[in-house]
Amino acid sequence: MEHQLDSKKRDVPEEATLEVNNIGGIDETTVSFRQGVTVLSGRNATNRTSLLQAIMAALGSNQVSLKADAAEGSATLEFGDETYRRTLERRNGTIVTDGEPYLEDPELADLFAFLLESNEARQAVARGDDLRELIMRPVDTAAIQSEIEQHEQRKRDLDDQLAELDDLEGRLPDLEAKRTRVTDEIETLEAELEAAQEKLEETNVDVEERREERSELEAKLDDVRETRSEIEHTRDRIETERASIEALEEERDGVEDKLESLSTGDETEISRLEAEIETLQADKADLSEEISQLQSTIQFNEQLLEEPDSFLAETTETDDGPLTDQLLDESETVTCWTCGSSVARDQIETTIEQLRTARQERLEKRSEISADLNDRRETLSSINENRTAYQQTQRRLESIDSEIDRRSDRIEALTEERETLADEIDALEAEIEDLETEEYSGVLDQHKEVNQLEFELERKERTREEIEAEIAEIEARLDDREGLKARREDVTDELTTLRTRIDQIEANAVEAFNEHMENLLETLQYENLDRIWIDRTTREVREGRRKVSKSSFDLKIVRSTDDGAAYEDTIDHLSESEREVTGLVFALAGYLVHDVYETVPVMLLDSLEAIDAERIATLVEYFESYVPYLVVALLEEDAQAVEGGHGVITDI
């Protein structure tokens, strides 16, 4: 799993400039960044987090706050030749955003690139949440399943076509044998006809004296021959129509059986499902809005604790000194940004924890609603598909009945035509008998024999032409078989890719986390911490009306005692520093697996104080290898540990 930085620098501008107005605790500022690492250095309450929020705003995130005393704010990012601008406006107690940010959909970046303290990937590791759900959230599994079903149908169609070609190929030997047999019969008839014609010519009759009678007789014989040919042709057409009717009746039996297995759907159930889907969609939208508002409130309060002076309209002098100094001077209270009263820090921290719990509950509720929604959509889709199939089958049945009626009428008309032709033959033969004399009786028999042989010969030749036409059509269709096989192979490969796409994303995520976690633990050298990895397991679960395979990501931790004995531990027993590193590595795995650098070439790091300066420097250096732009907010003493020619911003 290689994701080297050189491959990400393509088409990424060398420099970016950000203008900020009234975001977080910032009144107004302009800063520039270059590719690589940019360190925001300073003590607490110096608007470093606010600047990161401003970057997020310009890139498209909604997890930003407007300055407490401002009605509107903005963030403008000049990135190469392009300019991206985002505005924030306070309306009726909520923040409304507008403009044209860098990202249309910030979900991936919010999860795996904007790694502030409240970042969901970091928090999920710290809380022991479902890591698999989070890593797979950006994947549209419903769309993948729909694509799988479409490819499965295409493969079935191609299989049917190839099976039909196999049947046709199996008919070729019989057709070729039939053609050989008919050809032999034609050769025999040709020989018999030639002999009969020679015999007729040798017959010793006074043709000159009987020319007129013979001419009339021969005309009548020709008429009989032509009429017999017509009646034979009519008989063949009748047989063809009857064969078609038999095939249609057999198809009708199958269609009727299929129709009995289908239904038109219960209108009441359909209406109920549609109403439930609409209600669930509305509930999901409401929950999403609540989650977004809770996240904004959590971030706002976290920033209040970190940078309390950024929420004051101006520095206020008191008898004991500037108010900001009071807030920062080891005070256990903070001025509430809503009512202005003094509130204990631990009370705000408790409130933040309650808000996080409420947000998690709503996330879980939204997942439950999503599952119910998918189940009802699947049921409604199944009913609608069943109804469509019923209507199509009903139309096919009606079409078959109409075709049977049409062909029956055609048989009736052909039968009448055949009877008329038979009457004509009877009349012609009667006329021939009147013309026949004792002298011509032998000639008449010879004419009849030649006439009959010519008729049989024409019929056999027509049969051979039909056989040869059928053979040519089959051979032409068989020429397409290799193309059909190639298409089926392509569809099969695409199906395999689709079916394994979700599995591959999960496997890549686990591989990325385990690889980077191993690399960093070796470098960071946490005492007694031997290994942290994700163990991916699969189990059968019921989803709606079917069983599906579902994966789970279990975070495994192995420590060792002083005497070297290894034992398994839990996330709860990790130090704060170890948890933070684990969360950051998990976010990095998501960043790489989902190719987030192709969506946004920026990663933001904040709230690393739980990690010591030397390890922070190692982390920054490691992350720098995978991100075109890495912006890190650090305390002054931590910033000094980050070596190299990095950009440093101290004045915000």
UniProtKB/TrEMBL annotation:
Record-annotated Rad50/SbcC-type AAA domain positions: 18-241
Residue ranges of coiled coil: 141-304, 397-515
UniProt keyword Coiled coil present: yes
GO biological process, one term: double-strand break repair
Molecular functions (GO terms): ATP hydrolysis activity
Family annotation (Pfam families): AAA_23 (PF13476)
Keywords: Coiled coil
Claim: Coiled coil is one of the keywords in the record: yes
PANTHER family listed in its UniProt record: ABC TRANSPORTER ABCH.3 (PTHR32114)
Similarity comment: Belongs to the Sph1/Sph2 family.
Protein name: Kinetochore-Ndc80 complex, subunit Spc25
